[in-house]
Amino acid sequence: MTGTTAPTRSPVGAILRSKWQMLFSGRTDQMALLGVLGLGLACVVFALGRGFFRMLAEVRPDLLVPALASLLTLLALCVTVLALGTAFTRLYASSDLPLLLSWPLSTRQVFTVKTVEVAAAEAPLILILGLPCMAAYGHALGAPGWFYLALAPAAAVFHLLPTGAALLLNVAAMRLVPAYRAREVGVALGILAGALAYAASHLLSAIGGTAVFTRLAESWLGASYLPTAWLAAGLHAAVADSPELFALGLATYGTTGAFALAAGLAVVPRLFTAGWGGAPRRRLAGGRVRRFGAGSPALGMVRKEILVVLRDPTEWAQVAYGLVVIFVIFISGRLRGGGPADPFAVSPVLVFVIGLTLVVTMGLTLALGAVGREGAARWFPLSAPLAAEDWLRAKMWGVSAVVAPVCSLLTGLLGGVGLGLPAGQAVLVGLAVLACAPGSLAISVAVGAGAPVFDSPDPRRRVAPSETVAHFFLQAFYIGVATAVFALGLEAAPPVGPVLAAMASYLVYRVSLRSAASARGRWE
User: Fold this and answer.
1) What CA–CA distance (Å, rounded) separates 199 from 324?
2) Other C-beta atoms lying within 10 Å of the C-beta of residue 46
3) What pTM was computed for the model?
4) How many CB atoms neighbour CB 361 within 10 A?
5) DSSP letters along 304-364, please?
6) What phi-psi label fits residue 287: left (phi over 0), alpha (psi between -120 and 50 degrees) or beta?
7) 24 part of a folded domain
8) Which of 24, 42, 456, 478 is the most core-located residue (most Cβ within 10 A)?
9) Handedness of CA 18, 21, 27, 30 (dihedral sign)
10) Domain limits at 411?
């Protein structure tokens, strides 16, 4: 009896087909709504791009190709940053990774599946921003009909280089980033990308968006050695009805993207598998190493809190986003020429208020969620031979040791460099912020201890919403009192200001510590 062999299919193709079916299964209404929103945004981008290119064709026609190359370069950089964050999650923290590793698939096949997932996750950005931008360029210059048909392969080829670069950087970065931090690093990169986009948009508009973009188009963003410039030259050739030159530009750009993907595939067996197995352990020198806090449980808790804060990329990304927003607001105002001009506007009192605002911004995630950050592990410190005040004191000291010096330095730099404050006054304000930061952070820890949320992975939601509102009012009151005390001290003698501010901060710290300790019953 002869048996028949069933036709075999590619396991990679079967996996991708199943993922495609799962994407649209039971989500028709949701996908339709997202499609309508994406189409509307694409129409807005098309209208703006057409107006821009028409204006440029009348004023500076020699900058048409560099301008298109600059836009494509900026989009490629944005897609690369976002794809880098997505790749961290898809390659090392996705829920289906254990299932894929248990299948009879090679390392390269699993990497191929994840590469397609990363490319699919970033494809909407290219369809909404990149494709309308290319179409607007052709419509503004009167491109032939086949130009619009050629946009589909152009957008697909454009996707190769950012995806390949992101995957290659990701695989190499896993030699430095522990595998269990992959999801957090991905979230942090996404937050930082949003902060950079916010800063770029506001600073460009403050300086003069059109003029700055023109200078960028004339400089390295539109340089002929960039692959995006080759693609822009090919699109311009298509507008001029030259399919041969269009194919040449598309091929040169596509070759670069294919090379990036091939390079990532070549290093997969060594680096990608190492990421699955975990990052290499750090080798310590022989002998005993005495660590800070080794002889005292309280100091050990302080050391633990400092390390937890320093090793959490998600929280630091949230902090960086808030700091970027604050700095952009002040710097963009001065770049527009509408910054403060009278002596009071750049007085030490105003810079002191800005410094305390920086402290509150950093405390929103690092201090307000300090108790909730413990999560299920809160039972270990609660069962330790420590009083509630000792545990909370360790959190206040640990967060202050990280936040206070950073905010003090940033305040001094912002006052001296950004706002033109004299060097002596900038140092004085920095010291005052250093003295007042523990009081502000103690308020944040105390408020967070009143109603902590232990099961929230988001550092912004580790406390009840009602407590967040109370936190803002308490911080506003503290900033007002500390500012008044600091101003009175400056009137008496400049060194007295930081001293009085430190006394007020210590008083607030003691009150906050006792208030937080009284809420211990809510942590169980």
Assistant:
1) 7
2) 17
3) 0.52
4) 19
5) HHHHHHHT-HHHHHHHHHHHHHHHHHHHHHHHTT-S--SGGGGSHHHHHHHHHHHHHHHHH
6) left
7) no
8) 478
9) positive
10) 297-523
